[in-house]
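Allow me, if you will, to draw on your knowledge of protein folds for a short while. A protein sequence and the structure tokens that stand for its backbone fold form the material at issue. I would ask you to consider whether the tokens describe a fold that such a sequence might reasonably adopt. Thank you for your consideration; the sequence and its tokens are set out here:
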Amino acid sequence: MFFIDTNIFVYAHDETDPRKARKARELLVDLINSKNGVISTQVIQEFCNVTLRKSLTPLKPGDVRKIVRELLAPLLAHQPDLAFYTRTLETYERYSLSFYDAAIVQAAVDLSCTVLYSEDLQANARYGKVTVINPFA
């Protein structure tokens, strides 16, 4: 399994950087077609926040709803429980990550992913059996 961080979805829907948009779309098509891509609820929350307010080209709420329903929801494989936050805090301490990065890493670990596609984390970093790959490098 491959975990897909929020930035991949954001770039796929933002034409500010055409190279990253194309690369993000190609990666998403491959992961969706292979049925090997997964996300957590955090990815959906971050995507909504960024694309509605923080993006240089914000999306309309109706467009975000459609993307969530048609693209993100089918990939949703991790919903946190209370024990998840305990594990996330252990990951936070062990690897000196921000809390939100630790939550992404921990979700990938919980789902037994071998790859975490992200631009936000250090490329080729390993967290247990999870390796970070920056698809834009």
